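hiii so my PI (J.) wants the whole complex modelled not just the main chain, which honestly fair. so below is everything: three entries, each one labled with what it is. i double checked the lines twice but i was tired so who knows lol
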Amino acid sequence: MGINNLLKFMKPYVESVHIKKYAGKRVGIDAYSWLHKGAYSCSMEVCLDMEGDKKNRFLQYFMHRISMLRHYKITPVVVFDGGSIPKRKANRDLAMEKLKEGDTDAASELFQVACGVGEKVMVLAMLSTSELIEVVNSLEMLNAYSYIVESCEHNPSDGAPTDPAPYEADAQLAYLTSLETEKGGIVAIISEDSDLLAYNCPAVVFKMDRYGKGEEIILKNAINVAGRKPSFMNFDRELFTGMCILAGCDFLPSVPGIGIVKAYNLVAKYRNLDRVLSVLKLEKGKVVPEDYPTAFRQALAVFQHARVYDAASKKLKPLNPLTPELLQGDHGDLDFLGPDLYPSIAVAIAEGNLDPCTMEPFNHFPQPGYKHSLSFADSASQLSTQEEATGSMQEGCFTVVSCHKTVKKRIRVADSFIDLIGDMPLDATKSSSEGKQMTVISEEVLNESETSALKKLGFPSRNEALAQKEPVPLRSTLNMPSNNPFKKRKRDDEVQLNEAMSIVEQASEVTEVEKPEIFSATQKSEESIDSKVIKPKGKRIAEKLSKQSNPKHVITSKVEYLVPNT
DNA sequence: TGGAGGTATAGAT
DNA sequence: TATACCTCCA
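here's the output for the full assembly
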C-alpha cells in the first residue's frame, strides 16, 4: 500500500510529534488505516461475521483514538473508504478449509490475511453504512459532527455495489488540505498511507500511537529546501509525485529494477518527467512495458486531478484544475480520474437521508427486524421534506463514509462507543434484554464441521451460547483496558482520575494536561450532571435517532439509476 | 558495491 | 505492518 519504501527514504524529513500540536485545528483521518490496525485482534470474528463483543474490538480501537483527539481539542475529519474483495474471499475460503482440517493456527493466520494486509476490505467486512453512520452519530456526543458519505460504484445491470476506486478517500483528504478551515479544510492528516505525500498533502502524521505520538512529514520542509539528503532542491510537487509513481504506487507497479532510490536519481538528474520516461525506455528497453508512459501519465493525473467532492458547490471537481493536455488526451475520457457522478442523484444524496448503496432512506438507524419499505423513487421524493424537518447542518467535522453492502448482523456500535466514552448508566430494560451479548457463531455462516472446528477455539455454538445460564454482559467485555486514559467511570473517583491522567502524562510526555471534558463531567454527582450527558443509554439513542442529523454531504460514484428530475 | 526484491521475524493489536 | 537480512545483478 502506498509508495514503495517512500517513508524509509524520507526518514531525514520525519519528525517526532505529538498530536496536541494540532489543538484547536481540524485534522483529517484516514479511517481505513485505523480500522485495519484495530482489526488484527479480531480478524476471525470479523471474517466469520460472528456475533459478540470481540468483533467490536476494532471499533474500540477506532473510537479510543477519536476520543483522544477530542481530548486534545482536535476536530477529527474522518474519511472512510472501502475496496478490494476477491483476495479476501480467497483467503477466507482457505482459512475455512484449515478450520475444517482442525488446523486452527493456520486458520487464524489466514483470517488475519483475509482481514486485508494491503487490501482495502475493512468497511465491507465490518460495518454496514448505517453502522458507520451510527458511529458517526455516536461521535456527535462529544461534539457537533456532520459527515460525508462516499459511495461505491454500482453495477448498472443489477444495481449491486461494486468496488470503489481505490483512491477516493486519499484524494478527498488531499482536497480538504487545500481548503481553508472555515470552508471545511484540514491542516494535517493522520494516516499510515504514504500515498498522501504523492498527493502533495502538506502535513501527514504517520504511526500515531494510542497516546498521540507520531511521526510527521511536512512536505514544504522537503521540497525545494536545501540542507538535507536526499535533497529535493529544484524539485516541484509534480516531480515529487512523479518520483513516487516511478518507485511504484497503488496504481502502477514500478519498472523492474527501479525502486525509490533510482526513481529519485532519475528525477533529480533530468528534472523533467517526459525526459525521465524516455531515458527509462532507453536504459531498460523491453523491461519497460509498452504502455508504461501512458499509465504513468494517468497515474500522475490521478494524484493531481482525481475527482473529489466539493461541499460548497455540491459537485465533483478535480483535485486541481484539469489541464488542456488532459482534456484533449484520451479523447477526453477521464474515467481514470475517478468515478463520475450522476448529477441529479448526486444532489439528492449529497443532501443526506439517502443511502447511496441501497438507495433507501437514511434518516434513521434500522432497528433489528426493520425492513425498508420505501422504493428509491419514494425516498428521493421525500428528500426535500426531510431537509426541512432536520434543519441546517451542524458545524463540526466531516466524516466520509464509504458503503459497499450491508452486513446482515448489526454491531452494537452505539453501545460500544458509549462504553468507551460515555459515563451513562445502562438502561435497565435494555441491559436485561438486549444488553447481554455472547459470542455466538452464526449458523448461517458455518456448517457442522466448521462449527465443530471453531469449538476447539473456544467459541460456543449458537445453541450452546443461548443455553448458557449466565451470558456475558455486553459491558463487561467492552471495557477499555485498565490503563486507558480515556476510560470513563460511573462514580466520582479522584484517585482513579489522577491515575489515569498521570498515565497520559507519562505516556505522552505531556507536562501540562488539561482535564478532558468527559472527565470533568464525572467529577459531578450524577444528579447534577447535565441530563444531556447522563440520560439512560436507550433514551439517548432514541433521541439521537429522532434527531438523526443528516449526512452533510454524500459522495456517490457513477450510479446508473433512473432518477426523478430535480 | 549499492540497490532491488524476496523472505523471515518482530512488534502491535 | 515494517524491519532486518539475504541473494542476485548491473
